[in-house]
Amino acid sequence: MRAVILLLLFCAFSASAQKVQRVEALAQADTVVTDKVIDPLRPAKAAFYSAIVPGLGQVYNKRYWKVPLVYGAIGTSLYFYSDQNTKYKKVRDAYKRRLAGYDDDEYQFLDDQRLISAQRGFKKNREYSLLFAVGFYVLNIVDANIDAHLKQFNVSNDLTLEPDLIQQDMYSKPTIGLTLNYRF
Questions:
Q1: Residue 77: how many CB atoms within 10 A of its CB?
Q2: Where does the pLDDT of residue 150 fall: very low under 50, low under 70, confident under 90, or very high at 90 and above?
Q3: Which residues, 6+ apart, have CB-to-CB distance to 165 below 8 Å?
Q4: What is the dihedral sign for C-alpha 111, 113, 119, 122?
Q5: Rounded to whole angstroms, how far apart are CA atoms 92 and 126?
């Protein structure tokens, strides 16, 4: 009697195990396999990397050719900031020495009003250079974010818009136009 009960229990458990295996096999056959896994945090991660180190977000997005552009833009702006700051300090110090009664600076050919005007010009250019450096830094972050976001879109050749040379029948002259192709 006990053997019959054990046999029935064993059959019941093996039958339920077979059902689970069948359900798993159907679930695997029903799922769609995709090559590309979309990471929704990718744009934020790329922007964060670019905020920490300029150009690192572009490296994260595998857009290596943008890194020299980022460093060139920010570096050039910082160079001009440093150059204008040095010139501003020289003119300012020359003006201060002239007010103190010394007349031995390198700007002896300029009067006081022109020294003041030169100070304003160098200061304005210095501030513009700093503004450009900050602007390029922010543009670097925005570019990394947008580039990472656009990499998630499916781009296919099913819809194309391209320039085309169209031969007109009436005038026999080629005309430049656009062709829109949509393939199913």
A1: 20
A2: confident
A3: 174, 175, 176, 177
A4: negative
A5: 14
pTM: 0.64
Give dist(CA 184, CA 70) in Å, integer: 40
- 79-89: pLDDT as tens digits: 999 999 999 99
